[in-house]
Amino acid sequence: MAEETLMTIVNEQQGLSLKLKHRRELLACYPHPAFPTISITGSKCALSCKHCGRHYLKNMLACTTPEELYKKCLELSLKGAFGVLLSGGFNEEGYVPFEPFLDVIRKVKDRTGIFISTHTGLVPEWLAKEMGIAGVDLADYDLIGSEDTIKSVLGIEKKVNDYRSSLKSLARHIPYVVPHICIGLHFGELRGEFRALELASEVNPYLLVLLVLAPTPGTGFGELEPPSASVFKKVAIKARTMFPEIDISLGCMRPRFQDRLGLELAALEAGIDRIELPAQKTLEAARRMGLTVKKLYACCSVPESVVKSSFEPNS
Question: 100 near 133, Cβ under 8 Å?
Fold first, then answer.
């Protein structure tokens, strides 16, 4: 048993070294103003998850009718937006209710050609298919690998297999599906993250996003301690070795006031390719590591080929 554990560690270190040897760039991602987020439910959500408590919906543009969404997307396109992230609160089944917006998504796509990302939740197969037909380009998908976490943090009676099934449905019908795995979602502890990585591997994603629990005042987790940089790095290295050929991002949901720099430096050391809204000192550290820094003017899950990017000056 000890020999098998040692070989696992050696193989993971070799895989990480191989990735770091070939990596040449870090993408620093800046969604606003070229890639804004819209809530199609406003501040409403049928759930009250302990890590969110509807808090994050307040920071999104609210478009709660198809007419409002169409008008806003045209307005954003005229102002130079490359795309939008359509999000919102969940219904009782654990997904964003896109049903009334399918026709207008198709109209927006036909009229503007902007890139449309969606934060989906546990959409059923039929809705995943209709979203693909409507022209949705990308699905950001929160993937949870622990039934204890699903029940105690989200408060819904769903199983890990439900998350697996919905992920596969999205992968069948939408061009880009990006699993998002939140490290420490279970009250700040690791539980289910490695299982979630295994589930993600079943759909061969083109990109993977790692998040870190950010205790937010006013939520059920407001007083928790977030996972440490070393705990994050443990999961990130595992992800890097499991997915050596694809980009891995450190996403926007992460602690910003508690050892932010330590977390971002750990991401660099683990072979992360993209960071959303990185600190300036992180960019300086990346250059010292020999990486070329580029800015991507979109969410960190969006393909670089479809949106504007530029090289960041060295000074």
Answer: no
